[in-house]
Amino acid sequence: MAVATHGTSSNYLQRAPSPSGLADVVELILDKGLVIDAYIRVSVIGIELVTIDARIVVASIDTYLRFAEAVNRLDLTQTEAAGLAELRDGGSSEKEKTKGAFEGAKEAFSGDNGKRSRGRSKD
Amino acid sequence: MSTTSPLQDDTERATGSRTYVYGVVRRADARKRRREGIAGTDVVFVHHDDLSALVSHVPGSGEIRARRRDLLRHSDVLQDVLADGPVLPLRFGTVLAGDTSVVDDLLAARRAELLGLLAELDGLVELSVRAFYREEAVLTEIVAEDSRVARLRAQTRAGGATHALQVELGEAVARALDRKRAQDADAILDRTRKLARDVEVQDRQSELEILRASFLVERAQVDTFDGAMNELAGRRGDSVLFKYVGPLPPHSFVSLRLGGR
Description:
The complex is a heterodimer.
Chain A: E1 13-16, H1 22-29, E2 35-36, E3 44-45, H2 47-73, H3 76-90, H4 94-97, H5 101-121
Helix pairs in contact in A: 1-2, 3-5
Chain B: H1 7-14, E1 18-26, E2 44-48, E3 51-58, E4 64-65, H2 68-81, E5 87-89, E6 95-96, H3 98-107, H4 111-121, E7 124-133, H5 135-145, H6 147-157, H7 163-193, E8 198-201, E9 209-218, H8 222-236, E10 240-248, E11 257-258
Antiparallel strand pairs in B: 1-3, 1-5, 1-6, 2-3, 7-9, 7-10, 8-9
Helix pairs in contact in B: 5-6, 5-7, 6-7
């Protein structure tokens, strides 16, 4: 019988001998396993809800983990410098503050785009 | 080690209650284990002939409500007994009207099929493999490999990028990602399929997911499978995250649908 493989050739193989959380079990045990016909079964309330609920939780956790990984990989020196520059420029003129919110948002968005591509090109 | 509880004990406790069924094992493999079941109940066996059902007695007479934490318990209980021999997992949330129904409607009524499945799955375990791209890494690869993406990226970055050009770039990236995903999924399956008796490929759940599959593997082959996974991670680990769980009970390979008599 196999145990968790230690010293894998890469950090990107996550090996678990058994399911360690909701994310591991959800797809394994929902909609799977032997099915006994409904008329023999006692009805259980909320299975669909639990199913949907668990899938949502798992999807969010997956997303959060992806964000966490992405944030950890950010080139912080680049981002911080750009962030500061943006703050400084944004606050430099009183007129800027009176601009419509929509226009401001548009500006922030394109500024963000530029910042991200600059960071990426360094990789 | 083998402290199989006699039928009487379980049946007595079950009087007036409903019976949650986790799975079915051979009676010869039925060994009691300390593990909390559904809703904090004990996990016991209901025996009939050479078969045993792994069950919990749901107390009270009110409605039975499924809870999220019970998903893990269901999985844990089945995981435990896998070490003792083959186990047929039942679908989460299967509750029968007491132990009599477990015997009459399941163990006795379907004895031949259950024994057949247990024999078929003896010595086999499920291994679950999921593979995901790391977003930045795979996008970097795409820019490097796909000249059209590279060109459109250069154009949109040069400033004055029109909406249409952005969409064109995004579309090109999506196509390249589709192609890559198919290639990487094939590479994983090519390397692993031959080590498995059966493979069940599930639907992807996100753009960045490459593959979600379960493999039915002989226990003796699990180490070899580990080796294959290590090799794949070594080859693609910079861009691909592999999540690999097992040995598991054969959740994905018990397709039998059991009707009543």
